[in-house]
Amino acid sequence: MSEYSRRVPVVALRGMAVLPGMLIHFDVNRKMSIDAIENAMENDQLVLLLTQRDSDIETPGQDDLFQIGTIAEVKQIIKLPGNVIRVLVSGTERAQLENLIEEQPFLLGEIGLLKDSSEQHISNTEKKAMLRGLKDILEVYFIENTKIGKEVIKQLMKLEDVQELIDQIAINIPLSVEEKQNLIEAVDLIERYQKITVILTEEIDILRIKKDLQNKIKEKVDKNQKEYLLREQLKVIREELGESNTQTDADNYLEAAKALIATDEVKDKIIKEIERFKNLSGNSSESSVARGYIETLLSLPWDKAGVDKTDVKNAEKILNQDHYGLLKVKTRILEFLAVRILTQKGESPILCLVGPPGTGKTSIARSVARALNKEYVRISLGGVRDEAEIRGHRRTYIGALPGRIVSGLKSAGVKNPLMLLDEIDKVSSDYKGDTSAALLEVLDSEQNNKFVDHYIEIPVDLSEVLFIATANSVQSIPRPLLDRMELIEVTSYTENEKQHIAKEHLIAKQLSKNGLNRKQLSISDKALNRIITGYTKEAGVRNLERKIGEICRKAAKEIIMEGSTKININDKNLIKYLGNEKYTFQTANTTDEIGIVRGLAWTSVGGDTLQIEVNVMPGKGKFELTGQLGDVMKESARTGISYIRSVSRDYGIENDYFENHDIHIHIPEGAVPKDGPSAGITMATAMLSAIIERPVRADVAMTGEITLRGRILPIGGLKEKILAAKAAKIKLVLVPKQNKKDIEELSEEILEGITIHFVNTMEEVLQHALAG
Description:
Blueprint: E1 2-13, E2 23-28, H1 31-42, E3 46-51, E4 68-80, E5 84-102, E6 107-114, H2 124-144, H3 150-158, H4 162-172, H5 177-185, H6 189-241, H7 245-259, H8 264-278, H9 285-299, H10 312-322, H11 327-343, E7 350-354, H12 361-372, E8 376-380, H13 388-391, H14 404-412, E9 418-422, E10 429-430, E11 433-434, H15 435-442, E12 466-471, H16 479-483, E13 486-489, H17 495-513, E14 521-523, H18 525-535, H19 542-562, E15 567-569, H20 574-578, E16 593-594, E17 596-603, E18 606-618, E19 623-626, H21 631-646, H22 657-660, E20 661-666, H23 680-692, E21 695-696, E22 700-702, E23 705-706, E24 712-713, H24 718-727, E25 732-736, H25 740-744, H26 748-751, E26 755-759, H27 762-769
Parallel strand pairs: 1-3, 7-12, 7-13, 8-9, 9-12, 14-15, 17-22, 19-20, 22-25, 25-26
Antiparallel strand pairs: 1-6, 2-5, 3-4, 4-5, 5-6, 10-11, 16-21, 17-18, 18-20, 23-24
Helix pairs in contact: 2-6, 4-6, 5-6, 7-8, 8-9, 10-11, 10-12, 17-18, 17-19, 21-23
């Protein structure tokens, strides 16, 4: 506890701590610290030495310093070049910084000296026990740490005062700054004794572990040295007998290089490497590196190409067999094949299939490879952060390997495979390089005929590789990379398409996977439709396949355990196999309501409907938004209210209405984050409905962005939004007029039963949406 208070200059120490009884030199270069020491020399030569919590802070305050430090007497000052002074101080006693009075031009603190209140309660017998225990630990520590000088050991072992011994141990034994600070803060003798005992015990354990590790390493090195000598002797014996494995390997490589289908330039490079390999010691580390490099070069398909099928009708048949729908993808592949037949070569396109998960992007690539009779290589790019994964490691690194592109060519065995770059939107960058930038050369048809891998070092021709990339979202693909690819959108499947895919592909696949056949298990159309609508909520069919697989597994169990021969799944017994339905679409409201409007949203798993609710109440003009809305939706809401205020006279709204009423917009499912530029007209309609107390038609849904002047801007994801409206039994959908071209691309199956109205201004929206 503090004994008395006084004012003393404070010196902040970086990366060091001074204990009582310590005589130490240290350099000071900060002006505030130099001023503090000079002030101390003009008075009683005493300073308070406090350790900084963070060494990087240049001008520390009270919170940046440990509060307990050491009062030290400045013994000597030596001025050095560069405004640096070397100070000799002697630590005297512990003190606590109670208040930092001044910070400029130097730190001046009000301090209290700390005295040990527990020492008077400790008997001499206890002190002797502590002293002996500490010396016993010290003896073990000195055995393990041979770097401590003999004079220091003698000096410490002669001490008979336990408090002095603890302080001298802390001064003479290498401890970290944190450990020294802990000992400074331990004012009570018992606490200090416990801390120094724990520190010494831990140090003994660390020294023993370190010694064990060093012994093991030494044994390993000795073993390797012995093996090296034996190998050298064996090499000499073999040379005397005329048996040289290196020579045999080099000859084999030379024969393989001559037989290689490659240009003379590539062959000359490989032969030079083989000649160099001949002159290396067979057991050297360089020899094994050269061996791996030569074998990689020989295994690459430099000019070896596969023969593509040129039957367009057969390719179309295979694509239709493997996939239902996906007309854009199939058309583009058939176009590529037709051009190749006419030109005898044709540039291989770089296609990027973009769409939600589970829509069959990866399996399309496999089908294309089968249709064109190409070797298929899949490279997963999800989470790849290192540029060397694409371009390879330089051979100077230990364990160097070629990049994934060259490794894919090597595994394909031909220079014109179909290479799938899966999840290209998931590549990332870190300090090891930009992966997406490394892909630029790979995916540029003007450059990839001479792609250089860091490991191979010889240009590799990628121009004949048919690259197909997949991505879930275009937004996360860097623009330069996106510019080099031809985008093909793989949109969400309709319920009808999912039913066809399930009947023609998924059921047969899962029956085979689970050891069943169609005679043992059948699923009715109604049951299938119920699985699609009630048990899955997705853009693709991945979860649909899982549910069919779940039915198959339970049917297999029933056949084995209960002896069933035929199981028929229909909409009545479906609950037995899949449990209760998990998803229900929020259908259209039955009655027109004030301030409630149905919006349409695009999500990563397809479309969905959002019911926007607005309440108006007496207040002071407060405008509140709830439901985890993102910044874009918040801005849309503010734009909407600004538009309504600008046309308030047209709807008979009083001038002071907005100053006397609060408006609250809420989008249910508050735990789900929502954002996007397509809810502007929905929120504006809901707000105006609540303000003028006119109901909104229950069978209307809308999507579009609003401007301050009431114009309607186009939006994206229309197919998914229309499908969501159809599932919710919406009759009328309001769509921006500029999206008319997108609606025209949709099939009649999607638009059946829905009326589309194209709107250009907010006035048109209100004419269709407001009832009465």
